[in-house]
Amino acid sequence: MNILDAKHIFSYRKYWAQRFGTAHELPMSQAEMDVLGWDSCDVILVTGDAYIDHPSFGMALIGRVLEAQGFRVGIISQPDWRSAEDFNRLGRPNLFFGVTGGNMDSMVNRYTSDKKIRSNDAYTANGEGGKRPDRAVNVYSHRCREAYKDVPIIIGGIEASLRRIAHYDYWSDKVRKSVLLDSKADMLVYGNAERQITEIAHRLASGESITDLKGIRGTVHFVKQVPAGWTVKDSSDIDTPGKVIKPKSPYLMEEQSVCSEKQSEAQEQAEPKSSKISNAQRAKTVIRLPDFDTVKDDPIQYAHASRVMHGETNPGNARPLLQKHMQRYIWVNPPPIPLTMSEMDGVFDLSYSRLPHTVYGKANIPAFEMIQHSVNIMRGCFGGCSFCSITEHEGRIIQSRSEDSIIKEIEAIRDTSPNFTGNISDLGGPTANMYRLACKDEKIEAACRLPSCVFPGICENLDTNHTPLIKLYRRARALKGIKKIFIASGLRYDLAIESPEYVKELVTHHVGGYLKIAPEHTEQGPLSKMMKPGMGTYDRFKEMFDKYSKEAGKEQYLIPYFIAAHPGTEDEDMLNLALWLKRNGFRADQVQAFLPSPMSIATAMYHSGKDTLHKVSRRHDSDMPIPKGIKQRRLHKALLRYHDPKNWPLIREALKNMGRSNLIGNGKRQLIPAWQPKEGGKDDRIKGKGKTFRTQRTEYNKRGAPAKRHSKNNR
Question: Which DSSP state fits 144?
Answer without folding.
Answer: H
